[in-house]
Amino acid sequence: MIIEKSLDGFRATVPCKVNLFLEVLGKRDDGYHSLDTVMMAVSLADELEISPRTDGQLTLSVEFPEGFGQPLANSDFAWRIPEDSSNLIIKALDRLRISLGKSDAGANIRLIKRIPAMAGLGGGSADAAAALVLGITLWGNASDFEKSRTIASGLGSDVNFFLEGQKNGFWLARCTKRGEAIQPLACFETLHFVIVHPPVGCGTAEVFRALGPISWDERPENPESLLRALEHGVGPQSQWGVFNRLETPAMQTTDWIDRTRKRIDRYNHRGQCLSGSGSARFCLCATRDQAEKIVSELRTNGGMRAYYAQSWQSSGIEEQINRVRNES
Ligand code: C5P
Fold first, then answer.
1. pTM for the complete prediction?
2. CA 246 – CA 223 distance, rounded (Å)
3. Cα dihedral across residues 234, 307, 320, 93: positive or negative
4. Could you tell me which residues come within 8 angstroms of residue 178 by beta carbon, excluding any fewer than 6 positions away?
5. What's the 32 CA to ligand 1 centre distance in angstroms?
């Protein structure tokens, strides 16, 4: 995430995430699943602006830049983003103001939306994380950052990654428990991605239900070779070894997952995978040029959304809150 001062408040640019690895280790007593996942933030990004209000209300307005916001089919919910209190942005700010002891503080939020919903790209979580950071910048200070981490895990399993997943500028982390326990990881180089999102979304709870009971015939997969590749780089012809246990259950919810997989496999890439619980997939490419060529071909005759993205880089959140508050 990148935080800046705006005309009458603050602005955050917040990336989406892809899961380079996702294994489900078991079902917990609270109904959630224990995960071992490696997430990387990539440059398909939303923007949020916050400005103060004196009447205690929290309002949200959503806008789509050109090329975003147009559904591809009647059942395409990618751009149905609620503007009421069911949006995680409003929930995040409401919980934050109570935790800061400022329950009468109000704000207007403007969301410029590029990350599609129901895609497994963590768009709702990214926006919630950005709202917490903007709320702290407006109403508190960097020492309140710890409070946002506690609120984050109650909002969704992916929110903490967007607050804590940074190491040496890259946002790459191994995430365990429900996904909210974050261990940032080193990354050797900028990676180039094509993100492909079909005209049908996946519901996270539905995909986890389709996974069914976990009975291990063999040991669970582990991300060790992927982590070595991320830390030290891979040879020019090598595959990255991406993996997602939720591929098979997601395929049971819509045939678009497999259609998208086959479509991507027509191209020369270095590994493709479902992101999170889908429905978006991504493939890794050797160069930006190669990735952008695939994007333009998929857009022209694929009937699906396609975006170029690269690994996101920005400094840690506390450092940024301090800088922006000192500037203002
Ligand atoms: O945490 P989040 O709100 O994103 O999760 C949405 C749903 O996905 C949960 O209600 C749960 O059904 C499922 N889930 C799960 N195990 C996880 C994360 C999510 O079963 N670790």
1. 0.97
2. 15
3. negative
4. 28, 32, 33, 34, 35, 153, 157
5. 6
Amino acid (1-letter code) at residue 252: Q
Place of tokens 């009937």: 303
Lowest mean pLDDT among 157-171, 178-192, 219-233, 246-260: 219-233
Structural domains in the chain plus CATH codes: 2-185 (3.30.230.10), 192-310 (3.30.70.890)
17 is catalytic: yes
List pLDDT tens digits, range 24-63: 999 999 999 999 999 999 999 999 999 999 999 999 999 9
Burial of 110 (0-12, 13-18, 19+ CB in 10 A): middle
Q: Tokens representing 208?
A: 């986890």
Q: Among candidates 149, 161, 168, 191, which has minimal Cα distance to 283?
A: 191
Which atom of ligand 1 has the smallest separation from the CA of 35? 21
204 lines ligand 1 (CB under 6 A): yes
What are the tokens at 270? 């270095």
Nearest CA to ligand 1 atom 9: 205
